[in-house]
Design goal:
5 helices, binds zinc ion, mainly alpha, 2 strands, two-stranded antiparallel sheet, globular
Length: about 110
Amino acid sequence: MVPVLDGTPASVDPATGTMLVSAQWWNQAPFEERLFVLLHECGHLEAQGGEFEADRWALETYAREGHSLQKAVLAMKHYMPFNTMEQYQRATALLRQALLLEKSPKG
Ligand SMILES: [Zn+2]
């Protein structure tokens, strides 16, 4: 835990697996947002990929644990200001994945 991170709630170093979490963000974030962000950082390590792969891994894991997909998608909008094309694309990909997961049986 560090006091503040610039422009992100958390980050991970793939070389060492060290994760940094902003205390400023953590202390005001709801449970679903904390969980999704931590899973996203784990996703960078588990899926060994960039933002899209980490998002996908995080949402799959989040859904498998039985948490609300709606709350995951809503959590994302709190920490992504949607001011870049990549953020719009990530949001669209997550929404699409959430809708597909919602339709398919769990497990
Ligand atoms: Zn990331």
